[in-house]
């Protein structure tokens, strides 16, 4: 079956660094996506990885290892506004997105 | 630019009633999607449309129907609502079908539906 695993909740301190992990098992693979979703709002696109390695975009970076079925989202210099849920999604061989349940990130001052 | 607009934002509905959730986009995107989001579960695809005039079934299509008469509108209908359809529904669009782009979806603000 297809499955995406990510931690349910994480807590970090303002100004610190946090890494949110995601493991995936999908039928085929056409890319790994991260979205941010603030409470009661729509998800918004953060990153897309299809090749192994690290993609950096400002304070946010996303890493992919296809051989391990593993990705992480790295958030640096955390700000209070980064408190949100972070959704990991894998695109399978049919180009359908399989979504994880999301990781709720709580930032403390 | 509005992006994607969903209506209603919230609705309480009696079981057995018919309900249509509206979705309109002004980005001229070819592909549109309906997802439901439930606590503890990932977003699940209900139906999708890669282009006007075509629709397809997603992961959880039972009890739902869609139509795509034009590029901008993609309504989702619950013919006879049941309590298990209580959820937050998100409409989304992308410039083309996911096989042609990087998977960036643009989401509406969601419609919270409660079926009693």
Explain what you see.
The complex is a heterodimer of chains A (109) and B (116). Chain A is mainly beta and 109 residues long. Chain A is 0% helix and 57% strand. In chain A, strands 2, 4, 5, 9, 10 and 11 form a six-stranded mixed beta sheet that branches. Chain A is globular and about 40 Å long. Chain B is an all-beta fold and 116 residues long. Chain B has no helices and eleven strands. Chain B has strands at residues 4-7, 10-13, 19-25, 31-37, 44-49, 56-57, 64-66, 76-78, 87-94, 106-107, 111-115. The mean pLDDT of chain B is 93. The A-B interface holds A 4, 30-31, 33, 35, 40-45, 48, 87, 89, 91, 95-102 and B 40-45, 58-59, 90, 97-99, 102-110.
Secondary structure topology:
The complex is a heterodimer of chains A (about 110) and B (about 120).
Chain A: E1 3-5, E2 9-13, E3 18-25, E4 32-37, E5 44-49, E6 53-57, E7 60-65, E8 70-75, E9 84-91, E10 97-99, E11 103-108
Parallel strand pairs in A: 2-11
Antiparallel strand pairs in A: 1-3, 3-8, 4-5, 4-9, 6-7, 7-8, 9-10, 9-11
Chain B: E1 4-7, E2 10-13, E3 19-25, E4 31-37, E5 44-49, E6 56-57, E7 64-66, E8 76-78, E9 87-94, E10 106-107, E11 111-115
Parallel strand pairs in B: 2-11
Antiparallel strand pairs in B: 1-3, 3-8, 4-5, 4-9, 5-6, 7-8, 9-10, 9-11
Rg of chain A, Å, rounded: 13 Å
Give a count of the beta strands of chain B, DSSP E runs of length 2 or more: 11
The secondary structure category of chain A is mainly beta
* Average residue-wise pLDDT of chain A: 95
Shape descriptor of chain A: globular
Percentage of residues assigned to helices of chain A = under 10%
Q: Rough shape of chain B?
A: globular
Total helical elements of chain B? 0
Number of helices in the DSSP assignment of chain A: 0
Oligomer: heterodimer
Number of beta strands of chain A: 11
Largest sheet of chain A: 6 strands, mixed
Give the C-alpha Rg of chain B: 13 Å
Q: Percent range for helical residues of chain B?
A: under 10%
How are helices and strands ordered from N to C of chain B?
Answer: EEEEEEEEEEE
Mean pLDDT of chain B: 93
Structural class per helix/strand content of chain B?
A: mainly beta
Q: List segments of chain A where confidence is low: pLDDT < 50 over at least 5 consecutive residues.
A: none
């Amino acid at each position: 079956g297809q499955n995406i695993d990510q931690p349910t909740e994480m807590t970090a301190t303002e100004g610190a660094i946090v890494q949110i992990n995601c493991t995936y098992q999908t039928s085929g693979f056409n890319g790994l996506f991260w979205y941010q979703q603030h409470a009661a709002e729509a998800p918004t696109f953060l990153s897309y990885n299809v090749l192994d390695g690290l993609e950096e975009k400002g304070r946010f970076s996303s890493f992919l290892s296809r051989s391990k079925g593993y990705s992480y989202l790295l958030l640096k210099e955390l700000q209070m506004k980064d408190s949100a849920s972070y959704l990991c999604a894998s695109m399978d061989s049919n180009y359908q997105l399989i979504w994880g349940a999301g990781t709720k990130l709580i930032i403390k001052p | 630019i509005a992006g994607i607009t969903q209506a209603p934002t919230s609705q309480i509905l009696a079981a057995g009633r018919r309900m249509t959730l509206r979705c309109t986009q002004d980005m001229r995107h070819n592909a549109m999607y309906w997802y439901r989001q439930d606590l503890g579960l990932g977003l699940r695809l209900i139906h999708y449309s890669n282009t006007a005039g075509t629709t397809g079934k997603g992961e959880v299509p039972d009890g739902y129907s869609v139509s795509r008469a034009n590029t901008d509108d993609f309504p989702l209908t619950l013919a006879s609502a049941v309590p298990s359809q209580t959820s937050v529904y998100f409409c989304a669009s992308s410039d083309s079908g996911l096989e042609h782009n990087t998977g960036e979806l643009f989401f509406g603000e969601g419609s919270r539906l409660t079926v009693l």
